[in-house]
Amino acid sequence: MAMIYCRECGYKHSDKAKACPKCGRPTEMTLSKKINKLTNDRSMVVYLLLAWFLGIFGAHKFYVGKNGQGIAMLLMGTIGWLLILPGIAVCFWALVDFVIGLCNVSTPENVLGK
Ligand SMILES: [Zn+2]
Which of 10, 12, 60, 66 is the most buried (most CB within 10 A)? Predict the structure, then answer.
């Protein structure tokens, strides 16, 4: 356990504390976690929008770096329609991704792979 100094009042306290016990200022760790959470939430919104509007082109898959699945969905969502069935299948795939994303909004790392 390391000791750190509060940036606000200079009080020495444990780095495990979420905030300074003397003045209540959140530690750097707490602040950066909050920022990460905000970023994750925004990413999740983008993911859901992409899955909903561009899901059949695999846009949400590319967004989270699953390029292999993204390409598969892109092919199914474009030339797949020539065979009808892959086109319909990719619609369900995108819908399933959207629903799974909705269920994991509180834990975006499950979907976004963070
Ligand atoms: Zn303090």
Answer: 60
56 alpha carbon – ligand 1 mean position (Å): 51
46, two tokens: 């983008």
- Round to whole Å and give the CA distance between 98 and 104: 10
- pTM to 2 decimal places: 0.65
pLDDT by residue, tens only, the chain of 114 residues:
789 999 999 999 998 899 999 999 999 888 888 878 777 777 888 999 999 999 999 999 999 999 999 999 999 999 999 999 999 999 999 999 999 998 887 777 777 775
Q: Domain total for the chain?
A: 1
* Distance in Å, CA 9 to ligand 1 centroid: 4
CA of 34 to the centre of ligand 1 (A): 19
In the chain, where do the E strands start and end?
3-5, 12-14
Instruction: Provide the domain limits for residue 56.
Output: 3-112
